[in-house]
Request: fold
Amino acid sequence: MLEIERKFLYSGNMNNSTFEKAEVCLLIIQWYLSPPDTRRLRLAVSPESSRMIETVKTGFGMVREESEREISVEILHEMAYRLKCEKAVVKARYVYPRKSFEGVIDRYFVPDIGFVVEIETSQMQNVIPDPWVFWDLPAGYFMEVTENPIYTARSLAVKISDTTGLLPSSIPLVEPFQRQEFERSLSIVYG
Reply:
């Protein structure tokens, strides 16, 4: 599937009214398997379910090919030792679907870089709107990093040695059960 995406760092504050407009908030850990394996494994925990997605992306910058498939969450048990040794990112993802676009606000916890926002489409004819228009936030706080290789999630990923204090005590729109399920899943990999 074709993925056309613009990515920005956001250095301002986000208030709860911005988060409350999201369709859903997911707690996510993404592991990036070491080369030559190019897969990314993502555990996404919503208030209703946990899903594992295996993804392979090719290309760089604004237009990439993306191949995704859902796999069993039981892979955590099967691959726990390997995943523990791989680099990962941990974030809360707020999803904002609109017509032919999807916007996401990622609040990164590991590494702690703050907010990364993305707007994507799969249609070449669509012109991706500016994020300050999409979310009605001050334009001066956005810095585009679409073409900057330092800000791919694979480049940002780090090894996680301890999950204590990984998540802040309060995350807007995250349900207690959702948080418990995410932490339980992390304990399968990290003990």
